[in-house]
Amino acid sequence: MEYYPGTGRNHLFVPGPSNIPEKVQQAMARNNEDHRSPAFPKFSKSLLEDVKQIFKSKISTSFIFPSTGTGAWEISLTNTLSPGDKILTFRSGQFGVLWIRMMQRLKLDVDVVDSEWGTGVDLGILKKKLDEDSDFAIKALCIIHNETSTGVTNDLAAIRGILDAYKHPALLLVDGISSIGALDFRMDEWKVDVAITGSQKALGLPTGLGIVCASPKAIEASKTSKSIRAYFDWADYLEFYKVGSYWPYTPSGQLLYGLRAALDLILEEGVDNVIKRHHRLGHATRLAVRAWGLQLCTKKEEWYSDTVTAVRVPSHINSGDVVRLAWKKYDLSLGVGLNEVAGKVFRIGHLGFINELQVLAALVGVEMTLRDVGYPVKLGSGVAAAAAYLQHSTPFIASRL
Amino acid sequence: MEYYPGTGRNHLFVPGPSNIPEKVQQAMARNNEDHRSPAFPKFSKSLLEDVKQIFKSKISTSFIFPSTGTGAWEISLTNTLSPGDKILTFRSGQFGVLWIRMMQRLKLDVDVVDSEWGTGVDLGILKKKLDEDSDFAIKALCIIHNETSTGVTNDLAAIRGILDAYKHPALLLVDGISSIGALDFRMDEWKVDVAITGSQKALGLPTGLGIVCASPKAIEASKTSKSIRAYFDWADYLEFYKVGSYWPYTPSGQLLYGLRAALDLILEEGVDNVIKRHHRLGHATRLAVRAWGLQLCTKKEEWYSDTVTAVRVPSHINSGDVVRLAWKKYDLSLGVGLNEVAGKVFRIGHLGFINELQVLAALVGVEMTLRDVGYPVKLGSGVAAAAAYLQHSTPFIASRL
Amino acid sequence: MEYYPGTGRNHLFVPGPSNIPEKVQQAMARNNEDHRSPAFPKFSKSLLEDVKQIFKSKISTSFIFPSTGTGAWEISLTNTLSPGDKILTFRSGQFGVLWIRMMQRLKLDVDVVDSEWGTGVDLGILKKKLDEDSDFAIKALCIIHNETSTGVTNDLAAIRGILDAYKHPALLLVDGISSIGALDFRMDEWKVDVAITGSQKALGLPTGLGIVCASPKAIEASKTSKSIRAYFDWADYLEFYKVGSYWPYTPSGQLLYGLRAALDLILEEGVDNVIKRHHRLGHATRLAVRAWGLQLCTKKEEWYSDTVTAVRVPSHINSGDVVRLAWKKYDLSLGVGLNEVAGKVFRIGHLGFINELQVLAALVGVEMTLRDVGYPVKLGSGVAAAAAYLQHSTPFIASRL
Amino acid sequence: MEYYPGTGRNHLFVPGPSNIPEKVQQAMARNNEDHRSPAFPKFSKSLLEDVKQIFKSKISTSFIFPSTGTGAWEISLTNTLSPGDKILTFRSGQFGVLWIRMMQRLKLDVDVVDSEWGTGVDLGILKKKLDEDSDFAIKALCIIHNETSTGVTNDLAAIRGILDAYKHPALLLVDGISSIGALDFRMDEWKVDVAITGSQKALGLPTGLGIVCASPKAIEASKTSKSIRAYFDWADYLEFYKVGSYWPYTPSGQLLYGLRAALDLILEEGVDNVIKRHHRLGHATRLAVRAWGLQLCTKKEEWYSDTVTAVRVPSHINSGDVVRLAWKKYDLSLGVGLNEVAGKVFRIGHLGFINELQVLAALVGVEMTLRDVGYPVKLGSGVAAAAAYLQHSTPFIASRL
Asked: Domain of life, per the record (chains A, B, C, D) (predicted)?
């Protein structure tokens, strides 16, 4: 049997893949087509242009690879760096662990700053590292904008400010997989050199697209980068951009039409309204957690994430039980704790095309599940805290005014 | 513009049309086909057979008309009765009003028992009417099993018991539009002669099928019924059943495949489990209403409906405002109050393929909306009451044990 | 098992249901919604307005019933006529047979002019009948624009001309089920009083909508019509048009969105271009039939239908074998011969959203099947004749110029 | 505008992406889900197992990467080889050109045997190369089973025979992108070490999956391969196979469900019946080409491809005009000539879920287009030749017997 059906809707609150809107589903329900037909370049061009709006970038070049976020990590590294290049990065969550493992496999010389899971980039250490790097040996600074495993959002503006203060020429490579299209992201303003995201997060698509924006500086760097790359070489894309056929190999047609629909929805709502909505939903979720008397995995408010909330469970409870039971009884899909926080943390994803009542449903589900596993939360407590905030902050749906 | 989009899922809690499950959507996503091909009769036969399971009937004959519940009303009347025939029925809600209006247009001699909206069939009056009908002038007793406008479920077993006590030969025609497939319905045991439902209610399909089951007695009656009928004449269907091609005119192919998928889901869950689930969701909703300090439109517990809850608002509030605001702000679709209870009642539909968290989301939405319109409900109060009950009563999803 | 799968596409060439375009499929792939929401009236209004364009009518009122073409027949009759009213009509095909049977059931006084199957309305007889009707006893003239069982299109302009010449006040009721949206149809110019079509023909939708346009004269007539009607009473619709909520009972939402998409496609192509395309495809099909040395069921060129071609097989062949074998071997769905022409005729439907190569595929399939059943057609003969014509007459696809 | 619509179906006859069957479309029309739920491993396991049936392999290990065929090329090389490794390969078509370009980028030491486009692997040269390689310096032999740009199928059994005759230990890496699932492919029997395909070819899915089977010998080789790899490292997959969660990063859920449906269709038809069907359609196409008096790009019958036919046009005609005009006028999508044969060749893809009449439609379309561009083909000639063969060779559809 292919799946274990429940009745009604699955409540999908993992921090990606996220819920696919009906309009996106419709756009993808189409036969294959000849991507070499005269119709395809025009479509492709507008898509590559419009996707940059969620990066808030005008000067970068965008690429859409048939890949995932993991592939996009590789794209960001191999196109800009050479084996042996020194890079500085931070590790305090599972996606940091995995990206760094990739950097090492790619023979990059990674200087890893470890810190407690649930913390973000330590700006003091960053400064210290730059202090020590007066000869600019560091070729790239790699930052995960939003660490999905711990619910930590880093302050890119501050990081850019520090780099600027040091007049440091390092490339700024940013994993925006669980942020771009949901959190405030300003590629041009923050002088991010490579920013990446994946289709199954804020964009509400199936998995399968790795979306990459590269600054002119990153494009320039790629010309001398010696990392071996083939499938993931953006130079091939650039060549096909020049001749106007856009795709060096067969693109994922259906996903591109889905992306078109997703962008249309985002642009109709307004990128900044989308960001505000994510803040509302994130804040409401955190209010609920506080009402339950539980701690966030995230150590400080400055790092609170508006796309995912990682919740610590009391030590006598296994967070894996929470996730399993929520799925088995309420058809609620939560994120498990990964690696160091396995068993200690469960995660509520609240990104993509979702609204207030969807999130409130998840919060009620968590309340019930917590009681089921023996944590004596007061039913209604979290949802009431969240609803009180949302009732006041939620605007009317623009099209229905 | 064709619709006024919100972000994320619309929370559809009108008492029909109900939410379409993904499996049903998939089944309907198909090209047209030749309904005269050798493949179609076999499919049709199994469908006509299996649909009877939600009526709990083995001895009746089923019909699937390209129509709606309103059409099914007409089918039930014109196939069994003749102009001038005396029928007894009850009116205490909008669907009673409409069905009776149809009876009158069809030149039936309707004896209408009016009662307060929110009440069900007065069994005492029924007995009185039968007392007065010693010559069995009443040809049919027409009962709405579940009055969707007021949230009233009538006790068909008791009604049948009374008819039996009088040995009354009247046909028992039952509108099960918002009950069959969701509430306990026992066609054979209760000797219902014609029972009808529509595709967009418990079956979770789009509107477009009027589903009718007729007892042998009803089939017999149709042979002498003098009501004029053409499109809705089940005799044509019976003729095509005999020759094995099943459809006197083009059926709604996609809806039939959708019905197949919906029945498969229901039979997999188990008809009695479906009924229990509806009871859980109905009871939880009523607990929330009580916690809000509001009254049901339904006057007595014996009539409580497990598919729709009609909620009275305080007199200084217009229930239409509740419905409009819920839709405009939370993308929550509630049912308006109709006719006599317009402005006084809003309705929460909880039928079809929905689960606990979906209903709880609606309840939070109602709480927030009530506050928005000025009714000082305590946030979390209703949802907590509902959740407390659901947490204890909800079983694990069978396939996930 | 629900269907008997072949590999690849079924070649659907019955004269309805027709092929559903991808855009229409996408439009229908949506959850149910609240048809009482503030969004629905605006959508409904534009749909009711735009659908009149395929009728070429500005002055009529349109209705969209959850029903089929058969239901639309009933609507046209019961809304405008009273039992006992005299109507004149013609019978030379199966849909004539069925509509007349309905007229009789509805207690109308039908004067039927029979003629050989494959002929159209005998204008001489029509004149004779009108000659004999100097007191205007005839209340309605009922014409099937395109008789789907024999491939006969009647000349409505000529018929209107005759009525005008006699200054006859009879209502002109027209079955345009297999014509409107495909053949030239001019409701206002021809002063048609009620024109009907069904969703599964030229509109490329699933079965389930009966679409009706009524002239002001027909609307007027309905005010005094005494036919009993309930579900099919357009007065109820008119009442809801007035209050602006449009639907007296639950409409088929998905089909309405599909209709919107279908109309968009037709209006984008241009109604007159659609008509020209159907003429090209019909003419090409007839050229193939001639090349095969077979006869049309249609007796004279003046009646040739551009939506369906009924082909007579030689007497030693059973046309049912052609249809069965085409389906079993080539996944080609052809129309069977009905009633008087059962076994003698098979039908190629060529209406709706299809293009030249689709029809040519069907023609090759017919050639192969004819050989399979023992008729010695020269392979390639029909398709060559059709292709020779189509090569010269097919325009470039407008959007691809 | 996102696409340039024609009326009716696009006739998709590029050699991939191919037509998506309705059942596959339905299977993919689903929301995202949590790929870490307890339901996913069981589903994944059966899929990984069953996909091997189209490779005719029991002993290999399968991998499904979110990627394309180009990515699968990289997977096959980097997992088994180290920079500097000597590989032998053949180049006589565009996909040879591209794969070799990748090999060189990956720093492999490629010995390229060039031959005329339209020829296959020269077995004599292969022997000569092996003669010269008595010290087994060649680490891998890379073969494109079916060169999509020229319509050339290589004889893998013969190639394996030669390797065996020399007892040569080289890995046999095979690009089966446009063959596996359509042509006879026997991974175990032919001792293929890595075989790859893509989802958008014989499997009738959207682009987005690179499917790879690796022999035990290939898996062994990967343990010492020094090629840098990260996203494409199958060792990560093997690790997750071991722990039973199967996916080192987010898989393309919808495509996996589509793959399940595609495999179900193939297994229902029977792999060998699928292969026979492709042979029928390929042979029929070649008969048509011959009847038109045109030459294949493929030089000898032994290399004829049953998935794609590359047709040479007379020198005064530009094959690009054929492709453009077919698309603009008949909505027929053909493959263009690539690289050396640009302008000289157009291609008819006939792979995946298609049937006889679909291919015949394409053939008529080509005939018409050829006349349109000035080549005096006799209309009906090609299609008649193809139909004559197909009429005799096409079996009844198994489910419809």
From this structure: Eukaryota
